[in-house]
Specification:
Helix 1 packs across helix 2. The protein is mainly alpha-helical. It is built from 2 helices and no strands. The protein is 59% helix and 0% strand.
């Protein structure tokens, strides 16, 4: 019978990435919110909208609820 213990080295990397992903995501979102221009009626650039949508999708995948709006 083979010993089914995990091999040291590569096995912990995925767990480390999964544990660090929400923290890194929160730091990215915080930095992104600090960068945003606060103009009220200005439409964001296409690149900025893409970055924001990717970050919000990543937040939903991690399990953080999105912003709820009234309108």
């Amino acid at each position: 019978m083979k010993n089914r213990t995990r091999v040291k080295g590569k096995s912990g990397r995925l767990g480390l990435i999964l544990a660090a992903a929400p923290i890194v995501l929160e730091l990215l979102v915080t930095a992104r919110n600090a960068q945003k221009k606060r103009a009220r009626y200005t439409r964001a650039r296409k690149r900025d909208r893409l970055i924001d949508s990717l970050l919000s999708g990543a937040q939903r995948a991690v399990g953080k609820p999105g912003k709820r709006r009234f309108f």
